[in-house]
Amino acid sequence: MDAVASERLTSSPNVANIYGFCGQSAMNEIANPTGRVLIKGARKLSSHQRLSYAIDVAQGIAAAHGIEDRSPKHNITFSSQINLVSLVHRDVRSTNFLISKSGRMILHDFNCARFMTYDESTGASCGFYKRECDQDRAPEECWGLPLSEKIDVYSMGNVFYTILTGYTPYTYPKRYTLEEASDFVRHGKTPVIPTEIIENRNPALQAIIKVIRDCWAYHPKDRPSAAQVAEELSVAYKRIYN
Ligand SMILES: Nc1ncnc2c1ncn2[C@@H]1O[C@H](COP(=O)(O)OP(=O)(O)O)[C@@H](O)[C@H]1O
Ligand SMILES: [Mg+2]
Questions:
Q1: 2-18 pLDDT, tens digit each
Q2: Which residue has the CA at smallest separation from atom 23 of ligand 1?
Q3: Domain CATH number, residue 13
Q4: Residue 28: pLDDT over 90
């Protein structure tokens, strides 16, 4: 799955490249783990760098959602139906992004990804079920409800949160246990953004805070698409820096 998704997404600058694979092994583009750069380090980065990373993240996920499944069992042409998403990454978290040699944040680790299926007569998503819960997951995953690509959008909010604050979800103002964090996710208690960041009037940081809140909408239908978030952040970037 990892190899198939990476290969199909090779044209995206925000998805890790794959050069070859055999069975369970793959030869990927060499990149740096995001851990050291972002976790704790994010607040040393300029607001320009943080907004650039946030755009990379949204574009990487938008590219994954826009992948086409050309396998014979689905004969819907996704690219002609703008609202149909074909792939859900299902494991969006800051550690599943790398920093490429050119300094861009790139999405990788498609091990858990799922192709979406659609009802051919109505075009409606069939959704899928996978009950799983941790600090990086969406409320509907924790409840065992039907899932869509909007789980990636929720978790993308967590990646933005790490880019903004340097904290992974539920480690500020103290490190909560997995059980506590899972309970917060289930009941819509989102990670705390430090007051000094909320009160910082820097427009790049404010643009990131705005999309974090949109992505963290409790109900999947209230969340924007990854492509909409990428567009909104790019517009903010141009307004601020051009
Ligand atoms: N192409 C790569 N370049 C550099 N580091 C990588 C690369 N692929 C994986 N890693 C490192 O290995 C870790 C685990 O890889 P990943 O594919 O996410 O596996 P897992 O399914 O175990 O999470 C990553 O978080 C990263 O630190
Ligand atoms: Mg991983």
A1: 776 776 677 788 888 76
A2: 109
A3: 1.10.510.10
A4: no
